[in-house]
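Morning, I've got a small favour to ask if you have a moment. I've been staring at a protein lately and its backbone has me curious. You're getting the sequence in one-letter code plus the fold written as tokens. I've dropped the whole record in just underneath, so have a look:
=====
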Amino acid sequence: MAVINRIAGFTDEMTAWRRHLHQHPELKFDCFQTAAFVEERLKEFGVDEIHTGIAKTGIVALIRGQGDGPVIGLRADMDALPIEEETGADYASTTPGVMHACGHDGHTTMLLGAAKYLSETRNFNGTVALIFQPAEEDGGGGGVMVQEGIMDTFAIEEVYALHNLPGFTEGGFYTTPGPIMAAVDTFHIRVKGIGGHGAMPHETRDPVIAAVGIVQAIQSISSRNHYALNDLVISVTQIHTGSAENIIPETAYINGTVRTFDRDVQAMVMRRMQEIVDGMGPAYGVDAELNYEVWYPATVNDPAKTAFAAGVARQVSGESMVIDDGTRDMGAEDFSYMLQARPGAYLYIGGGEGAGLHQPGFDFNDAIAPIGASFFSRLVETALPIKNRDR
């Protein structure tokens, strides 16, 4: 495994950064302590420019190479999750009910490691734009940073990101050209009827029965309204209604998620869901209202950039440690907004055995941080070479 020697030399320092971040997790756009920590490290490294306050707490920092050339963006997410930690680690979260259960502390550390190395060596032409973004888990911070103009302001021409993957070979890489993760939408359905005594249902307009009918009809969209080989997931995840066994309630609430890759499939789901809600309300004598929220788009890798990034990964971890034609999955990522704006690639880096993402027992594997930092660094040096320099 060809981890860059200089990066291997500050493995302990990277571990300390990561564990500090792990102890101080922050949610959504409120990554104030995290951003301050990142900014302090970047100043120590001597990067050329630091731009803060993007998407509230996001940062873009620039490192210029030895000559003119294009700008490559490298992105890491910084936010945590509203989960009570159960790792038992001596560096566990000090914030009740909040933890880094997805490894964004590690992602930030890997990019900081690359920043330290690239600032010292500058063995490249062009410029590196280091993108530290808040609110990946909830809020679409990546999309907000794009909306606030980072791609144009900093002339970013291509962009790359890494995400740790527990259960996949430690230090291995996994990606695929084209769609790698799904678009995610959320739906809310509110049903209003007439409540009453459970012994006298004829005097009510029961929202519970209506909610059950709506949920059953929604589940038929996947099985009866679309081609089975087009990926689609519709999951009802919440139904809230009622307060006692002898009271028919007045209202019911239904909530769930929709995952798609194809925009025509997404449009069909939206249309059918609206038709179901509009039809079921009168059928059950209740009022039913749908609020359908379009969230993150599908994460779509540029094929050429994916092939290039996979080649860099092979330089770092070896041929047998890289899968570049993997299957896509139904998870979602707001790096999708950056890939809509510029060509690039999203890769997973294997974390080895351990608890899965978004679990209270999850902890980022510090051993892979130098590998990820080496990948980012080699990507820059390979994409922006200094001609005729002694390798």
User: Anything to note?
Assistant: The CA atoms of residues 21 and 37 lie 8 Å apart. Residues 183-294 form a domain with the Alpha-Beta Plaits fold (CATH 3.30.70.360). The mean pLDDT is 96.
